[in-house]
Design the sequence.
C-alpha cells in the first residue's frame, strides 16, 4: 500500500479527477489550499496592500492505494504535464505505508 499526494492549481482539478479515474484510484480525499511562489518585489508594490502576498487557488488530493495504481497515475500525470503548456504542472509524491490500523 502507498500514500499519494497530488497538488495542482484550481484550473486542473477536473483533470486530476479524470487522471485518478483512468489510473483506477477510486477512493481519495481533496482539500482546497493556497499555493505560493516567490514573486518579484515589483508585484508586491503594485497591490493595494503591498505587505500581503496572495496565494493561487489550488487543490491537494491524497489517497491510500495499491502500488500498481500509483505507477499508472504517475505515468498519466507525467504525460499530462508534458502535453500541457503551463508553468504550474500537476505535482505528485508517493509515500510508503509501513503500518495501518
Sequence:
Amino acid at each position: 500500500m502507498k500514500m499519494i499526494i497530488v497538488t495542482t492549481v484550481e484550473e486542473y482539478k477536473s483533470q486530476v479527477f479524470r487522471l485518478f479515474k483512468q489510473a483506477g484510484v477510486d477512493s481519495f480525499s481533496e482539500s482546497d489550499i493556497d499555493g505560493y511562489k516567490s514573486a518579484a518585489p515589483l508585484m508586491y508594490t503594485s497591490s493595494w496592500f503591498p505587505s500581503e502576498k496572495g496565494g493561487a487557488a489550488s487543490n491537494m488530493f491524497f489517497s491510500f492505494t495499491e502500488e500498481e495504481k500509483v505507477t499508472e497515475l504517475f505515468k498519466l500525470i507525467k504525460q499530462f504535464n508534458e502535453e500541457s503548456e503551463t508553468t504550474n504542472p500537476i505535482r505528485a509524491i508517493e509515500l510508503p505505508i509501513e503500518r495501518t490500523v
Observations:
- The two ends are 13 Å apart (CA to CA).
- The chain has a mean pLDDT of 87.
- The beta strands are 2-9, 29-35, 56-65, 91-96.
